[in-house]
Design brief:
single chain, two-stranded antiparallel sheet
Length: about 100
């Protein structure tokens, strides 16, 4: 992976902060909007620099949170009105579009 710049980190952080309550975005959506080459870059940024952000609004394209986060993430989303069926968020219903 190419070195990640501070500008890229700040762009992803701003995008995550812009996801409204009751909506979600995928790592791929964020990568595309931030003009990054891979959703994995977004995942790395989220893993290292997101404790002050609404991290729970970022999910994989499958709609299923990572197993180690699923309970806490789905609980936080539920408090915002985002419901999951069998542990999966319906992206058609809750996906935030940046454009």
């Amino acid at each position: 992976m190419a070195p990640i710049t501070e500008d890229q980190v700040e762009k992803v952080r701003a995008l995550v902060a812009a996801i409204p309550a009751g909506r979600v975005s995928t790592y791929g959506d964020l990568a595309e909007e931030a003009e990054l080459s891979s959703p994995r870059i977004v995942a790395w940024i989220m893993r290292t620099d997101s404790s002050d952000l609404p991290w729970h609004r970022v999910i994989p394209a499958s709609g299923r949170p990572a197993p180690h986060l699923a309970t806490r993430q789905l609980e936080r989303l539920r408090t915002e009105g985002v419901l999951a069926l069998d542990g999966r968020v319906a992206l058609r219903e809750y996906r935030h579009r940046f454009r």
